[in-house]
Write a structure and sequence with these properties.
This protein starts with a helix and ends with a helix. The protein has helices at residues 5-12, 41-56, 70-81, 84-91, 113-128, 144-152, 187-195, 206-220, 234-240, 252-264, 268-274, 285-288, 302-320, 325-328, 337-351, 353-356, 370-381, 435-454, and strands at 61-62, 95-98, 101-105, 134-136, 156-157, 177-180, 199-202, 224-228, 246-249, 292-296, 329-331, 360-364, 386-389, 400-404, 410-414, 423-429. α2 packs across α7 (187-195), α3 crosses α5 (113-128) and α10 (252-264) runs parallel beside α13 (302-320). It is an alpha/beta fold and 457 residues long.
Length: 457
Amino acid sequence: MKFASAAILLIAAGTASAFAPNPSLSTRFSSSPLRMSEKTSEEKKISKKNERLRFMKSDQFFRNGFKEVRKDVEATMEGQFKSELVDTLKANEYVIERDGVKVHLADSFGFCWGVERSIALAYEAVKHFPDRKVHITNELIHNPEVNDNLHNMNVNFIEKSNSASGKDFSVVNDNDVVILPAFGASFEEMQMFNDKDVEVVDTTCPWVSKVWNTVDKHQKKGLTSIIHGKYEHEETVATVSFCEDYICVKNMDEAKMVVEYIKTGEGKEAFMEYFKNAVSEGFDPDTMLVNLGLANQTTMYKTETRAIGQMLQVTMMEKYGPVDIKSHYLEFDTICDATQTRQDAVQELVENSEKLGLDFILVVGGWDSSNTAHLLEIPQKAGIRSFHINRADCVKADNTITHRNMSGDIITEPFITDMSKDVVMGVTSGASTPDASVQEALSSIFMLKKLSSSVVV
């Protein structure tokens, strides 16, 4: 596994050095907005994207890392995240047998390029600014080990608060360094940091930026953005901050509620009460569900996003006719490639589970990781015994397992049902999960089975 350099150089290619001074940008950009009455309709639609691009051109905004510390960071990441066991699995066609356990590893799993890049940028920032206070606006990614590493590097995680911003930014002082996580940051946060005398290291995944560009296209065309995502998720919070008019739907059931309102226009009060936390300020479903654009949180279940898109397209076609559909409905695929390939790989395990004789499928990744949670949905919906754990110590010595179910509850239950037989299992991991975490989880299972075999009955 090769970390850091490849991920960052792809982004950096063709651009100036991240810390080369730009004489034309010797001062901070002013982000003072024009009065709303002075803005034209078109300016309102494009101003947030334009301002974001202005922030990114500042000489205090870094997106390409710091080359002088890159080799050290690469070595650190190799040491923390590499797994000999996972390398052995890949070298043996993703299958291994050890201590009475046969493991089938999904052929696409674990760290994606965007996550690798985000970690590398964050680690490089800490090394590049050794004498500066470094903050991060949220968890870097949804993985406990990675965030623990940053805590150990004395990175300050900005705490949530009851303020209007929802976070206690009072701890950020002039000359500090602020890391924006892989999920991105809201427009308002970017604007605030641009106005402060701080260095900003932006680790936002390029796939997330792609979603922001998509909703910008919606605004330019006068469309309301329907975001397939969880309105409280960090990525979606950032995305909707770049929208003018939007509504978030977290699943097919909520999308059906939107479709029903489009068709009938009935039950406005109940509709708005249900979606009150998931819509833009001043949202009016009577006027804002006429012209729609679909985008999604990059880590959602792609099959569901496609189904929602098809349902919306049919609904708008029935209401406005096939001739005018393009002026009433626009759709972009913003599920990231890594999310899709990992979902496809788990689907393959599910489809071959009977042939492989799988007793269960183990999903390894942060409990608050959206992409990992969706990996669990695939075997669960197929009726295959499956568990989502966030750390190896979820597998207990008493043959119980603590895991997160599809409802989000953390439960503990008996694990291996028949210790007298060999165990056959499938395993995968989320896009924010290091290979080392998979190795630790599998090692716990190997040890559990080995110890059970040594017990004299």
